[in-house]
């Protein structure tokens, strides 16, 4: 199978090249030329397999330039019970009224980013061997919290790689900061930047385009690469858990084969919900894809009106991983919905860059309405949902997953549709302990993070996951704080050690 670019349909590369490059030269995203189908027999056969074997079967359809041995090496090293706290890798919790919570946070950093970032290092090093053999891969990441930690855990001590993470000094939660500054591994570096997330992101982009840095690194046989969410190597692993969950629900006799399900996703950069769309294209029977946003509801408006307009107030919310005004992966969806019309994609995303706005045509707007339903809620509604679900069902949601549950509730009221529904849960509640504590307990909060967590555990009869608890006794290894202009120097210093 080949991959084209959303901004140049004529371009064709194999998956290894798409994964090593991340972004195509003209700025487009790599998309599979066709979506492989899963037959009824294939889906039924998946029911009796474990996660690793399901993952293997699905990857084999997309990464056709990988050998059997290469793919098995990747999936077995990523999806095992050393990295995840359950053999099932993802768990399904059953709530009332046909709702299934798909827990995607059983990995080492307790957020769904682990589902892709545990395997990306193996996909990337295998791809590099095929395309740029012998080069060291140096990963650079700018993070607002979850991605940095998940990438650090994924790449730590992976031979042939190193990773540098930059985060805004005052822009991450106390737990997220602890998780990153106590990171273990011999090939990792973490540095705070005096500035906000945009400063970190711009600093990383500047390093990527700095010819001087590139030449110095090339002399040492080092190639810079990125682990951000537009890389096909991060998207492909996300298709697997939707297919796997469908097979599991059939196996558990919760649904019959062929029965349609809705899928609800708390959305930011549109990667996770796009993966659900790909699962549908592969043949998983999906009724509606429900796109849930927080107060940054640019996607709700887009799906409902066909106008994407990022010229609006930016809100800092209790679900920070969804605080985003440009959802990059939407470009892939629109490429497919326009019948792979790269000219239209260039026009629309050119307009987004120059004026912050574009409007899709009537045909795409109609297709969006058929495939998706979109809704949003604010922080007050998010916390009310956490409280309600806990009181009524004794299930503790994190702030992001609560947005999804609330928007699904609105969907059901608006449509009366009672199709069984998979709701993606993207983080463990203890990652966002303060807001969750406020939602279920209210009142004053202790300043100390671990005191707060102890109170939350007592109030809800739940337990903080082991990887978060472990940060309490770990030494802080990375205390550096730099000006944004110094980021290039930090990378060169680290890579010359
Ligand atoms: C990244 C993230 C999201 C958003 O996912 P996208 O694929 O960017 O839409 C939602 N919730 C959590 C907890 C995340 O870390």
Helix content estimate: 40-55%
What structural class should be given to the helix and strand makeup?
alpha/beta
Mean pLDDT: 95
The major beta sheet can be summarized as:
6 strands, mixed
Q: Spans with pLDDT under 50 lasting ≥5 residues?
A: none
User: Hey, roughly how much beta strand do the residues contain?
Assistant: 15-25%
Strand segment count: 16
Spatial shape: globular
Strand order of the largest sheet: 4-5-15-10-11-14
State the end-to-end CA separation.
40 Å
What is the count of helical runs?
22
Cofactors, ions, other ligands: pyridoxal-5'-phosphate
Radius of gyration: 22 Å
How would you describe this structure to a colleague?
The protein has 497 residues and is of the alpha/beta class. Helix content is 47%, strand content 16%. The chain has a 6-stranded mixed sheet with strand order 4-5-15-10-11-14, sandwiched between helices. α7 (146-155) links the parallel β6 (136-142) and β7 (161-168). α19 (433-440) crosses α20. The chain is globular. Bound molecules: pyridoxal-5'-phosphate (PLP). The site of pyridoxal-5'-phosphate has 17 residues, from α12.
């Amino acid at each position: 199978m080949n991959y084209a670019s959303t901004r140049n349909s004529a371009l064709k590369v194999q998956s290894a090249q798409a994964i090593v490059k991340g972004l195509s030269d003209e700025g487009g995203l790599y998309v599979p030329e066709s979506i492989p189908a899963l037959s009824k027999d294939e889906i039924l056969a998946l029911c009796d397999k474990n996660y690793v074997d399901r993952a293997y079967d699905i990857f084999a359809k997309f990464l056709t330039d990988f050998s059997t041995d290469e793919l098995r090496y990747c999936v077995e090293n990523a999806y095992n019970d050393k990295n995840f706290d359950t053999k099932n890798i993802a768990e399904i919790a059953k709530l009332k009224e046909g709702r299934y919570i798909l827990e995607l946070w059983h990995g080492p950093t307790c957020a769904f980013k682990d589902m892709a970032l545990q395997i990306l290092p193996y996909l990337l090093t295998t791809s590099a061997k095929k395309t740029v053999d012998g080069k060291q891969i140096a990963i650079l990441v700018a993070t607002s919290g979850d991605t940095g930690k998940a990438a650090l855990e994924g790449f730590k001590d992976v031979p042939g790689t190193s990773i540098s993470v930059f985060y805004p000094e005052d822009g991450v939660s106390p737990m997220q900061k602890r998780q990153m500054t106590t990171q273990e591994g011999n090939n990792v570096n973490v540095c705070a930047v005096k500035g906000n997330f945009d400063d970190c992101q711009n600093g990383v982009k500047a390093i990527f385009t700095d010819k001087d840095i590139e030449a110095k690194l090339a002399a040492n046989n080092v190639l810079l690469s990125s682990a951000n969410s537009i890389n096909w190597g991060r998207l492909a692993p996300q298709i697997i858990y939707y297919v796997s969950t469908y097979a599991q629900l059939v196996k558990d006799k919760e649904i019959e084969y062929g029965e349609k399900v809705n899928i609800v996703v708390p959305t930011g950069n549109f990667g996770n919900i796009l993966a659900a769309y790909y699962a549908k294209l592969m043949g998983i029977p999906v009724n509606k894809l429900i796109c849930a946003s927080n107060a940054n509801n640019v996607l709700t408006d887009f799906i409902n009106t066909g106008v994407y307009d990022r010229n609006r107030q930016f809100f800092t919310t209790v679900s920070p991983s969804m605080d985003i005004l440009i959802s990059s992966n939407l470009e892939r969806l629109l490429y497919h919905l326009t019948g792979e019309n790269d000219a239209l994609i260039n026009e629309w995303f050119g307009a987004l860059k120059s004026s912050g706005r574009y409007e899709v045509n009537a045909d795409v707007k109609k297709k969006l309405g058929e495939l998706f339903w979109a809704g949003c809620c604010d922080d007050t509604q998010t916390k009310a949902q956490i409280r309600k679900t806990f009181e009524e069902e004794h299930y503790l949601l994190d702030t992001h997953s609560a947005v999804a549950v609330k928007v699904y509730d609105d969907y059901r009221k608006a449509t009366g549709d009672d199709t069984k529904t998979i709701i993606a849960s993207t983080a463990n509640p203890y990652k966002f302990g303060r807001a969750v504590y406020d939602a279920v307990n209210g009142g004053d909060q202790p300043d100390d993070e671990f005191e707060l967590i102890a109170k939350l555990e007592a109030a809800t009869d739940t337990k903080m996951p082991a990887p978060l608890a472990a940060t309490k006794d770990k030494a802080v290894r990375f205390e550096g704080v730099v000006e944004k202009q110094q980021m290039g120097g930090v990378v060169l210093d680290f890579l010359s050690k």
